[in-house]
Amino acid sequence: MADVLRLRFDPIRRAAELWRRRWGPSSQPRSMASATSIMRVQQLLLGDFDTVVGRHGLTFARYEALVLLAFSSAGELPMSKIGERLMVHPTSATNIVQRLEAQGFVSRSPNPRDGRGTLAAITDSGRDVMEAATTDLVQGGFGLSMLTAEEHDQLFMLLRKVRVARGDFTE
Predict the structure, then answer these.
(1) pTM of this prediction?
(2) Phi–psi pair at 139, nearest 5 degrees
């Protein structure tokens, strides 16, 4: 992790206390602290992931696209599916794929099943760089190596509960 100034206190815990004092316990200080903690951890992990995959000439968004293509049965997907599965705007998906194509990690071609659409396919060099970046992410425990296996399971189930309640997917 980059050299940054470390606080001598937990700013989210302090914010929750100040929140409770100002607006009272019914103002959901625990919910605010939980939500803010999730967002902060996301920022920390994304920074770490970008650093790790950056050594391979990628951003985490481009790495995710390569993994998505590698996981597809044919190693290719329509652009619309890429945006949908990465949960990004179609313009962002196009930008990600164009950058990967410029690096030689993805190729694009007309979609034979849809005259207007485009297919993106992972190349051999794209698979190689994705595998190398994955090895590095795995070695780092995806930034969560301080958790036990049980804690990973608990965290996953708690966050999954939120995702289900928010309609992230249907079971």
Answers:
(1) 0.86
(2) -60, -35
